[in-house]
Amino acid sequence: MAKPDMRGWMRLAFVGLQLKRLYIPVLLPFILTAGVLLAGIVLEGNWSSGRIRVVMMVLTQVPIIASGICAAFVLNGDPLVELSESTPTGWRKVQATRLLIVTVAFLTAAGLLFLGLHMMRLWPRDLGWVSMITTVGGIFIVNCLVFLVAVLTMSMPTSSLASMAIWLFLCFIWDPYITDPVQQRLVPMIIAAACAIFGWKMCSDTERNVVKVADL
């Protein structure tokens, strides 16, 4: 008789525990998506498609901003660093799981947002499914870089400001000069992934994590 995979159940229990603590950041992207789609439905009967797309160009940036702020919130301000480091789980796994949960929630909601606006023909600069990479890639980039900032500073205000600075750079400096969606997001996503890997390695320093929180 096969023995139950206790490790698998423990992983599920761990993820479930984190989900229970992060239910608001997980629900937020879907609430935002519903709000944007509702705005599109309301405006569709009153405004021209051109005017609505201008509004949607602004509203589709909201999930990127919100994802960075939510990532800053879940990655900072937790007083349980020493407790987590005293268990086999470790603080690094806690932080990575939280980042993954929030990022997946926002990426899923961004996909639903694109699908809804695409079907209504209201997605700004719609080039087909490839257009989704603009928002999805933006969420990935911001969250990966916020993860690194959170590891370095363990400060929510600093991480939140960093998320806004990254979004401003993408929105007003990078994106206007690179119009192809894939080229627009590919290089920043590679850099962001490398930064997240660097943060992951730094987060393994148990002594540093505990001392850093004790100094705050």
Topology record:
Blueprint: H1 6-21, H2 23-44, H3 49-59, H4 62-75, H5 81-85, H6 91-119, H7 133-153, H8 156-174, H9 181-202, H10 206-215
**Proportion of beta-strand residues:** under 5%
Shape: globular
SSE pattern: HHHHHHHHHH
Residue-averaged pLDDT: 85
Outline the biggest β-sheet. none
**Number of separate helices:** 10
Number of strands: 0
Distance between the termini: 52 Å
Detail the poorly predicted runs. Answer: none
Computed structural class: mainly alpha
Radius of gyration: 19 Å
The helix content is: over 70%
Describe the structure.
The protein is mainly α and 216 residues long. 78% of the residues lie in helices and 0% in strands. The protein is built from ten helices and no strands. It has helices at residues 6-21, 23-44, 49-59, 62-75, 81-85, 91-119, 133-153, 156-174, 181-202, 206-215. Helix 6 runs antiparallel to helix 7. The protein is globular, with a radius of gyration of 19 Å.
